[in-house]
User: Which sequence fits this backbone?
């Protein structure tokens, strides 16, 4: 049997760890690895047009599957392009292994062409970042990197000089078992006892949920029913907790709506479940707070805690719910449900008033129609900016849909690259990129990746020819908008020139038909919707002191848009409110 080189051994270990694709752009220092992928039928090389796309795609695939994924960049500028997507994956707790190939090992430290130090550069956006300088290191270092990425849910980076990758590997090492999944983490009995005591003594309890409630919907609902608690959520908790939820009081934060803010401030006890909600100004400072999180370093870093509980939400609630005393008084819950419904009814009017005839098209209307037409198991990838607002307020979760965005890192241009990674996991599942014109044009070259691989991603482009969220920030700060206008082409024509399906929509009456036709098309498609640049939205509960650039009042051109089908959810929840 022929001897392996280090690159072949590297690829074999990735395959054993369950990696199916390696996203990247080829380059000379990567050649041994790319050639090893070419000769291994168990893994594919996905050639993207920009390495930032590779990292975003790998991060999205990891979020969809929960499995380890991988991306790669060639030496110097090539692997530097990975950094933004790796930051996003790391902050989203997506298990990603990044290969940063390096200059020839004998030249390191001598100012060689394209020299950087990736093992140092990626330290802040990874749990593990190491360089392989000897072939004997590789199997153990790679195994350690994999276990960091999977075990700590984040990024690991391997720096590998091209000449080392091409060296003959030592005799095949023993195949050490690899960690490929995380365990459940249960809190200690002492912490459970303390939390039970806090809950039993409180009259009004509110649950505020984040992405850590993934897979725990039934447990949260059972717990909320037993203690008669309203349930609010952060943006990353929306897809996991909002659907089939008779205790839903909406979302808090910059994109918030409904009564979540009131519910978190008017309770006796606030329980934060699996959320690293970043905006501490939206959290109360005068109520008792307990936090449950699987990552102990996140406990208490947003607010002063009265109790920190280390454990995953599902296992914690399985231990907790049987032990708390059931509450019979629904007055607080019913009050918050009524406030939530009233709040949504109040803002729905702006959305319903002749919006189907408004030109330029209201982006709220686009999001609402998209929500109705898209598949029940669609994956939505969402650009940062105003697309976050429309997705948060209009895309209805149901337990089968996924909503992925750069919700922690806040990067522009994430939606299209994330859609690539999401679509590769299942070509038959509908994937919709909710792109802004600013974000789309930033990494527009990777629309060609959709065409190259015939990926049936549907790009719905909210085209207001501006950086809308930045304009809003300037507006409410009293500054004139400057540097925010985009001079755009006909993006549908660009899509057609690339070999994809493209249609431009300027009238509301044409929107539904255009979306249906694009979704019916078997390959990649782009719907370029010309939207109103004045349709901006601000959260219902915010002050200038809370977040720089926002204020309670704004210019008259700022429209308080509706919240789509979420008002129907609130109306259905009113069935639970006892009538006098």
Assistant:
């Amino acid at each position: 049997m022929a001897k392996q080189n280090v690159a072949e051994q590297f690829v074999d270990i990735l395959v054993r760890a369950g990696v199916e694709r390696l996203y990247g752009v080829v380059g000379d220092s990567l050649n041994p690895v790319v050639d090893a992928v070419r000769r291994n039928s168990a893994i594919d090389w996905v050639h993207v047009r920009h390495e930032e796309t590779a990292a975003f795609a790998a991060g999205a695939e990891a979020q969809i599957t929960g499995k380890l994924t991988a991306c790669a960049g060639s030496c110097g500028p090539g692997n530097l392009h990975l950094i933004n997507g790796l930051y996003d994956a790391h902050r989203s707790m997506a298990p990603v292994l990044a290969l940063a190939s390096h200059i020839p090992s004998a030249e390191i430290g001598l100012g060689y062409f394209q020299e950087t130090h990736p093992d140092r550069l990626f330290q802040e956006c990874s749990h593990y970042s190491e360089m392989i300088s000897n072939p004997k290191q590789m199997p153990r270092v790679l195994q350690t990197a994999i276990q960091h990425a999977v075990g700590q849910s984040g990024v690991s980076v391997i720096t590998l000089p091209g000449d080392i990758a091409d060296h003959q590997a030592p005799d095949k090492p023993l195949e050490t078992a690899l960690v490929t999944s995380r365990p459940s983490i249960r809190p200690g009995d002492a912490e459970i006892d303390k939390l039970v005591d806090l809950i039993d003594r409180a009259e009004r309890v509110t649950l505020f949920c984040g992405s850590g409630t993934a897979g725990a919907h039934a447990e949260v609902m059972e717990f909320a029913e037993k203690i008669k608690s309203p349930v609010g959520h952060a943006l990353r908790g929306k897809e996991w907790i909002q659907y089939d939820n008779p205790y839903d009081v909406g979302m808090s934060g910059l994109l918030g709506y409904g009564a979540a803010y009131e519910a978190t401030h008017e309770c006796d006890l606030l329980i934060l479940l699996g959320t690293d909600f970043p905006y501490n100004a939206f959290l109360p400072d005068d109520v008792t707070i307990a936090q449950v999180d699987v990552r102990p370093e996140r406990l208490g870093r947003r607010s002063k805690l009265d109790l920190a509980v280390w454990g995953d939400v599902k296992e914690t609630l399985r231990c907790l719910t049987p032990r708390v005393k059931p509450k019979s008084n629904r007055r607080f819950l019913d009050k918050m449900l009524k406030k939530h419904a009233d709040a949504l009814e109040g803002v729905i009017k702006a959305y319903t008033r002749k919006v189907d005839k408004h030109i330029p098209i209201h982006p709220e209307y686009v999001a609402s129609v998209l929500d109705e037409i898209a598949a029940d198991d669609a994956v939505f990838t969402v650009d940062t900016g105003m697309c976050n607002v429309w997705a948060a307020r209009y895309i209805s979760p149901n337990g089968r849909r996924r909503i992925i965005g750069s919700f922690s890192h806040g990067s522009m241009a994430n939606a299209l690259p994330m859609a690539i990674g999401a679509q590769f996991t299942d070509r038959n599942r509908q994937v919709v990129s909710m792109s802004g014109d600013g974000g789309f044009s930033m990494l527009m070259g990777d629309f060609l990746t959709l065409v190259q691989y015939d990926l049936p991603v549907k790009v719905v482009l909210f085209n207001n020819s501006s950086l809308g969220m930045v304009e809003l920030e300037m507006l409410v700060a009293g500054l004139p908008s400057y540097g925010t206008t985009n001079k755009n082409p006909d993006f549908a024509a660009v899509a057609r020139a690339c070999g994809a399906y493209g249609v431009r929509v300027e009238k509301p009456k044409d929107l539904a038909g255009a979306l249906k036709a694009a979704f019916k098309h078997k390959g990649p498609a782009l719907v370029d919707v010309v939207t109103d640049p004045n349709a901006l939205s601000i959260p219902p509960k915010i002050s200038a002191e809370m977040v720089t650039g926002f204020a309670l009042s704004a210019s008259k051109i700022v429209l308080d848009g509706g919240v789509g089908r979420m008002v129907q959810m609130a109306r259905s929840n009113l069935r639970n409110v006892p009538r006098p």
